[in-house]
């Protein structure tokens, strides 16, 4: 999965000391503090902010004296004008020092490691990697974030597990590491509070893709952890923060350079994000897939990325002689169940009922699905003919999800945790081979038709492309949006077949099923026989096209 790996070295900062060996030579403090409008003007006009300027802005964010408009204006000024390496380093330090610093037992000094991703679609690596590293003898105090833009958030995914508590004090984090070896928590008023405020503001001010803001946000959370090593998964491609690989490479270099200047040993891996990672997109379904991966199964691309990043961390922290040896240790933790055992411990320690944690980690995939949020409405869409899905673009799926409630348009907005699509595709030599699967849906308060529109430009099939654009009809519900999405993805025209309505047995959710049958406009071919749902694993190229089934989850 990793296109390349960039490594920077530096002595990890001592507990409570965030100066770092590279702090010398940073910007000199300005003698007179400036007002926020003046700071915004300086950066808006392309000037450099002094250390005092940056620290003054961060202090205003934390103490509440900075208005929301001023925060947004400064973020946009930084997004448009950028920051140099010294400014970015100072901003990183200021964010890290805005809250309490984590202190650990001296014996843990070489065991503390962590991973971070710049965000993608279907990226559930953290859910798998943290317990796998704990099973390999590491301590993983992961401070993570929520969804940002169209990308998913690790905290949002974990909160789809009933009872999971992402708010933990530093003392509670130490207890979690002693008990489970890993924890995944969010920023709080005690831990990096300034970044928590800026992170939420970036999500709704179109400043997600700012290189210095990304760097400072990532490294500030990691700097307070007192890590021995850090690996960062920098995504590039159509569904990444940076679509261009060179932009992603620049971010990777900046992360490594800033980390080294602050005494943090960092490795950055470049990975493609044009198609979803794994087979599931959305909060509850991604938890299911993470459990499957920790059970020794799961999609190959997810497993490969977990072992690659984990191998780099074990090598950087001295737990493995080479990166390949580290990857083998991580793979063994996935196969022998030790990673799943650590995940169960983490769930129970972070508020999940022990019985539920045990059932999630020991039950079958079908049993796990019943324990996580599920939507009431289920929609099944059948492929009109045999064929092979060549590619599933991640961005259109993510935009539909975001529009229907799986992402945020306002800071702090609640999510629909059960809304998620599952294309059940596997990737072979860059080609998606169809599998049956499900896409969790629920009714939405607003139309998602405009979000589904890009699918026409980024979808492929073996059916000839129509000579005229497809009509984009208004989708009045999530199920209608998925129906529209699938119809445009297939690039075929015609009339849908009959509709039947079934009621779930045993008081289960109602199921509305429409057999969608089309014929290419150029040839009225005989209606293709609908194939039975094949196995979700081991299907080879050239087999029937999949069902794209919208199943789904109780809206919470």
Automatic annotation (TrEMBL):
UniProt region (Disordered), positions on chain: 1-36, 441-471, 496-556
Name of the protein: Thymidine phosphorylase
GO cellular component: cytosol
Keyword Chloroplast: no
Comp. bias intervals (Low complexity): 444-454, 519-536
Start and end residues of each Glycosyl transferase family 3 N-terminal domain: 38-99
Record's keyword terms, sorted: Glycosyltransferase, Transferase
Database matches in InterPro entries: Glycosyl_Trfase_fam3, Glycosyl_Trfase_fam3_N_dom, Glycosyl_Trfase_fam3_N_dom_sf, Nuc_phospho_transferase, PYNP-like_C_sf, Pyrmidine_PPas_bac/euk, Pyrmidine_PPase_CS, Thymidine/pyrmidine_PPase
UniProt superkingdom: Eukaryota
Keyword match Glycosyltransferase: yes
GO biological process, one term: pyrimidine nucleoside metabolic process
Assembly mode: Homodimer.
Family per record: Belongs to the thymidine/pyrimidine-nucleoside phosphorylase family.
Gene3D superfamilies to which the protein is assigned, alphabetical: Nucleoside phosphorylase/phosphoribosyltransferase catalytic domain (3.40.1030.10), Transferase, Pyrimidine Nucleoside Phosphorylase, Chain C (1.20.970.10)
Any one Gene Ontology molecular-function term assigned to this protein's record: pyrimidine-nucleoside phosphorylase activity
Residue intervals of the Glycosyl transferase family domain: 110-340
Alphabetized Pfam families for the sequence: Glycos_trans_3N (PF02885), Glycos_transf_3 (PF00591)
């Amino acid at each position: 999965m990793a296109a390349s790996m960039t490594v920077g070295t530096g002595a990890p900062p001592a507990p409570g000391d965030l100066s770092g060996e590279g702090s010398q030579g940073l910007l000199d403090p300005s003698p007179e503090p400036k007002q926020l409008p003046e700071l915004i003007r300086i950066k808006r006009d392309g000037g450099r902010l002094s250390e005092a300027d940056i620290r003054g802005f961060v202090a205003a964010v934390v103490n509440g004296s900075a208005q929301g408009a001023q925060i947004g204006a400064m973020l946009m000024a930084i997004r448009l004008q950028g920051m140099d390496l010294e400014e970015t380093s100072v901003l990183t330090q200021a964010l890290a020092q805005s809250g309490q610093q984590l202190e650990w037992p001296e014996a843990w000094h070489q065991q503390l490691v962590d991973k971070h991703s710049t965000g993608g679609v279907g990226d559930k690596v953290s859910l798998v990697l943290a317990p796998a590293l704990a099973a390999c003898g590491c301590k993983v105090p992961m401070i993570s974030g929520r969804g940002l833009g169209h990308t998913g958030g690790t905290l949002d995914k974990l909160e789809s597990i009933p009872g999971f508590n992402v708010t933990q004090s530093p003392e509670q984090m130490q207890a979690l590491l002693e008990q489970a070896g890993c924890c995944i928590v969010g920023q709080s008023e005690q831990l990096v509070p300034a970044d928590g405020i800026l992170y939420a503001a970036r999500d709704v001010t179109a400043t997600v893709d700012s290189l210095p803001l990304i760097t400072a946000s990532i490294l500030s959370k990691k700097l307070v952890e007192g890590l021995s090593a850090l690996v960062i998964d920098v995504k590039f491609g159509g569904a990444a923060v940076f679509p261009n690989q060179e932009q992603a490479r620049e971010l990777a270099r900046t992360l490594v350079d800033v980390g080294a200047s602050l005494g943090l040993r960092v490795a950055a891996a470049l990975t493609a994000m044009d198609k979803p990672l794994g087979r599931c997109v959305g909060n509850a379904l991604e938890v299911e897939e993470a459990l499957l991966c920790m059970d020794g199964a799961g999609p190959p691309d997810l497993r490969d990325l977990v072992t690659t990043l984990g191998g780099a961390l074990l090598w950087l922290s001295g737990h493995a002689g080479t990166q390949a040896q580290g990857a083998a240790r991580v793979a063994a933790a996935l196969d022998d169940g030790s990673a799943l055992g650590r995940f169960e411990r983490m769930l129970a320690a972070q508020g999940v009922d022990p019985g539920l944690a045990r059932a999630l980690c020991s039950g079958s995939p079908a049993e796990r699905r019943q324990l996580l949020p599920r939507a009431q409405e289920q929609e099944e869409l059948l492929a009109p003919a045999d064929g092979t899905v060549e590619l599933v673009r991640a961005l259109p799926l993510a935009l539909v999800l975001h529009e229907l409630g799986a992402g945020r348009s306002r800071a702090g907005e609640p999510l629909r945790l059960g809304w998620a699509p599952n294309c059940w595709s596997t990737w072979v030599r860059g080609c998606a081979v169809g599998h049956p699967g499900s896409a969790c849906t629920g009714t939405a308060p607003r139309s998602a038709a405009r979000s589904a529109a890009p699918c026409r430009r980024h979808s492929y099939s073996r059916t000839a492309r129509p000579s005229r654009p497809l009509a984009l009809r208004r989708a009045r519900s999530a199920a209608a949006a998925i129906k529209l999405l699938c119809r445009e993805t297939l690039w075929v025209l015609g009339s849908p077949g009959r509709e039947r309505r079934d009621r779930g047995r045993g008081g289960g959710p109602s199921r509305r099923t429409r057999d969608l049958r089309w014929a290419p406009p150029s040839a009225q071919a005989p209606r293709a026989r609908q194939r039975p749902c094949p196995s979700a694993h081991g299907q080879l190229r050239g087999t029937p096209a999949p069902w794209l089934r919208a199943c789904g989850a109780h809206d919470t």
